[in-house]
Amino acid sequence: METAINTPKDIRKMFGNTMSMRKRWTAAVRQNATRKEMEKMGIKQIAIVK
Amino acid sequence: MDLISLSAVNTKSPYKIDSDSSGSFFFVTEKGRPYHVAFIEDPLFYEHGIYQYCLDTEVHAGADSHVHEVVVALMEEFFNSSAKGLLYICDSMDGRQAARNRLFNRWFNAYPHRDEYRLLQREVPYEGVLQYVSLIVRKDHPELKPITESFDRVLSNLEYAYK
């Protein structure tokens, strides 16, 4: 399902979230955040299985 | 659920890859440099199934060609999962995003199976800085067309927002 983004303001906000996502993940991983803590911050990573 | 198998990645990776407590991939090079890699779900173009690729190392001291091989192994297993696409935005914190984009393009063009993938790319201004946005989708993915259309529509609107 595609994302319903209609207004330039929505898009700026979404793109801002995308841009900040890596910074937030980098900060979290350097602080040894757990996967659960990351998910609470809106960082949802692909699942890993052994 | 989209998932990546560590055992499958480790059949191809020159360094052993593990998962750490943060849920990210983790490996250490032969020179002792630790790396973290993540694929983070990003709804920018599609509500589900597109992931942003992120890599971090706190130590920057010279190139290690094996890191490229590790990244390729991870990306191949990523595309073996049910994920729909891989988003990569070159880090622009130090102003070197153009150089990163050139390196990414060199790596992609050198990849033996590149013809199985569609590489969508766009340079977009954001807060006064040019950002290099790439999205990789398998050519045989059934949703290739709507994903491509969404990529074009969203980034065209983003450019319009700054005019």
Describe this structure in words.
The complex is a heterodimer of chains A (50) and B (163). Chain A is mostly helical and 50 residues long. Chain A contains two helices and one strand, in the order H-H-E. The longest helix of chain A has 23 residues, at 8-30. Chain A is elongated. Chain A starts with 7 loop residues before the first helix and ends with a strand. Chain B is α+β, with helices and mostly antiparallel strands. Chain B has four helices and eight strands. Chain B has helices at 6-10, 65-80, 97-110, 144-161; strands spanning 3-5, 18-19, 25-28, 34-41, 50-56, 85-89, 117-126, 129-138. Chain B has a seven-stranded mixed sheet, with helices on both faces. The radius of gyration of chain B is 16 Å and the shape is globular. In chain B, 30% of the residues are buried. The chains are: A mainly alpha (50), B alpha+beta (163). Chains A and B meet through helix 1 and strand 1 of A and strand 1, strand 4, strand 5 and helix 4 of B.
